[in-house]
Structures are given as structure tokens and as C-alpha cells.
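Input record, target 12 of the design panel.
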């Protein structure tokens, strides 16, 4: 199914239709976030799953403002130069918001901040640390910029203790120059994911790929191979949906990919050895089903560590006489 004309776009298929959020819980959370001057990517990216996630104990916070220094053509976030402006109280505000939202799994992402000396890595890490200090049981996933694949900056994030480290390659290598900002390079993104594993081999890593931009099957397969080579554990596939008419002009939807095709890519990813793959038209990088799976894996790991520590203790401790 192809979007062949910008003047007369084809009708969205039934599998992409969702109801507008109406629940009281959704509106209460929206008002609370507005009062704290906090931004969630759920709102900024016009995510179709926002009510499901907010009602189910998951939310994605976007750190360091709502203005990105890069200009990827698929993205709804505005572009500009924040000129070093940063809300130093944001980590505390995010921690407060989380305590009011009854969350058990939080995702932190951010705009690109090429205007900052450390590209925002320190602020990002501080937010993770505040959340972990307030609630050590909270599962924290980070969806980070590439930090120009600088090892020290990626290490700063890993040292803060996220449970999942995510960075999106977004599309195939062939389409990257057309889809992403010129500074957001395919190989740089792979290197960022690789660095997370080098720094901490047990770190769960994750990425996401959009479909519907005229990507070739062989290029998707190659992207999956590249991801496995750098140790990426989790991959998600979702339908590209141009968020505004301006985006439809500069990066039009070429195809509405059928759910059966998404199912095929999940099978391919599973066969390649990915720990988990969420694949469907409405799947996004931060996706409730995927996070539920990761929560189970992380809790299982923690239980194993507790059991290992327990078994390492002597059965008959030596008594001091």
C-alpha cells in the first residue's frame, strides 16, 4: 500500500486507527506534567500508545527541553539552538513526577544537545541517579542521543546504572542520509550501541527501526546483522507516520506496511538471536509490551544475583572463640 501523492494521500488502513485519549488518569497526568514544566516524548512525538502506557505504569520523559540541535526529517520535535540553557532542577522534578504517576518502568530520552560541552551526558546521568536514589527498584530505560560515540560520554551514562541502554538507528544505512540529520550517522549509532556493551558487557541494549520509507528487504537484513555484531539485544519495528503536513512533504510515507510483514521481520529477528523483538504498525521504541518483557528479564537477573550471593555464604560459618 503506497502513499503515491502528497496532494491526495491514501487513507490510513484500519490497523493504524486508534482512539484519542479520554481517561481521567491520562488528563490528570497531563496536567501534573504541565505544572512541573516537564516534557514527555509521548506528547512531543504524538505517540498513538500514550493512554495505554500512562495507564499501565510506563512513561517516557524527554530531558533537556523541547528544542533539538539536530533536524531529522521524521521527527516532530522542534529544531533550534538552546544556547546552553538547561534546567538544573529537572532531575528532581522528574523524580517527583514519577512518584506521583505510580510508575514501575520509566524511560528517559532527550533531545540532542550539541550546544553543551558534554552533549548533555552529565545531566542525563544525574537524572538516572536521582531516580535510582529515590526508588532503587524502579526500572530505568534510557533512549539516548549518540553522544558522537565518545566513549567517556557513553560511560558516564552506563555508570549511572540504567537497566536498559537504548539508541535508535531509525532506518537502514542506505536511507540514513535522507531520513536523519547529517550528524546522526548510521555507523556512529552502531558504535554507540557497541560502546555500551564494551563498557558493561551485561548491559541490555536496544534499538528501533521505522518501516514505510521504501527500505529494501536486503538492507533491513543487513541492519539486523550489523546490530547483532555489536551485541544489540532488543530491536523494535514500527510504522513511520509523518507527524505533520510539513513532514509529509519532506519525508512522505511511501508505504503502509501490512501487519503480516511486521510479523515476518519479528521472525527474522528471533532467528538471528535477538533477545526480544516487538514488531507492529503501532510499535514504538518505548513500547509497553517490550518493556513488560524487559521488566521480567531484569527482575529475573536480580533474583539470580540474590541467589548467587546467598549460595556464596558458608553453610557453617566459623565461630569466633
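The sequence produced for target 12 reads:
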Amino acid at each position: 500500500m503506497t502513499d503515491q501523492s502528497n496532494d491526495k494521500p491514501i487513507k490510513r488502513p484500519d490497523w493504524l486507527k486508534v482512539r484519542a485519549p479520554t481517561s481521567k488518569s491520562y488528563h490528570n497526568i497531563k496536567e501534573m506534567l504541565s505544572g512541573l514544566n516537564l516534557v514527555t516524548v509521548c506528547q512531543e512525538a504524538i505517540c498513538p500508545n500514550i493512554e495505554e502506557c500512562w495507564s499501565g505504569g510506563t512513561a517516557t520523559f524527554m530531558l533537556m527541553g523541547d528544542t533539538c540541535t539536530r533536524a531529522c526529517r521524521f521527527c516532530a520535535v522542534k529544531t533550534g539552538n538552546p544556547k546552553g540553557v538547561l534546567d538544573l532542577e529537572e532531575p528532581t522534578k522528574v523524580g517527583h513526577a514519577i512518584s506521583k504517576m505510580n510508575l514501575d518502568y520509566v524511560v528517559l530520552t532527550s533531545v540532542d544537545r550539541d550546544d553543551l560541552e558534554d552533549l548533555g551526558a552529565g545531566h542525563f546521568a544525574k537524572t538516572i541517579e536521582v531516580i535510582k536514589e529515590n526508588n532503587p527498584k524502579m526500572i530505568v530505560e534510557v533512549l539516548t542521543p549518540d553522544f558522537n560515540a565518545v566513549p567517556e560520554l557513553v560511560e558516564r551514562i552506563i555508570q549511572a546504572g540504567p537497566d536498559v541502554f537504548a539508541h535508535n538507528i531509525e532506518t537502514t544505512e542506505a536511507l540514513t542520509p535522507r531520513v536523519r540529520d547529517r550528524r546522526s550517522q548510521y555507523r556512529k549509532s552502531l558504535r554507540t550501541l557497541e560502546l555500551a556493551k564494551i563498557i558493561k558487557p551485561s548491559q541490555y541494549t536496544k534499538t528501533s527501526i521505522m518501516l514505510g520509507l521504501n527500505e529494501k528487504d536486503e538492507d533491513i537484513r543487513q541492519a539486523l546483522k550489523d546490530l547483532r555484531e555489536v551485541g544489540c539485544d532488543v530491536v523494535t519495528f514500527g510504522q513511520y507516520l509523518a507527524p505533520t503536513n510539513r513532514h509529509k512533504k519532506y519525508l512522505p510515507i511511501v508505504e503502509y506496511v501490512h501487519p503480516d510483514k511486521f510479523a515476518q521481520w519479528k521472525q527474522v529477528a528471533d532467528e538471528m538471536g535477538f533477545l526480544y523483538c516487538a514488531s507492529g504498525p503501532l510499535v514504538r521504541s518505548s513500547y509497553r509490551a517490550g518493556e513488560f518483557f524487559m521488566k521480567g528479564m531484569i527482575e529475573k537477573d536480580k533474583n539470580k544475583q540474590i541467589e548467587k550471593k546467598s549460595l556464596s555464604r558458608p553453610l557453617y560459618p566459623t565461630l569466633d572463640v
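The longest helix spans residues 288-312.
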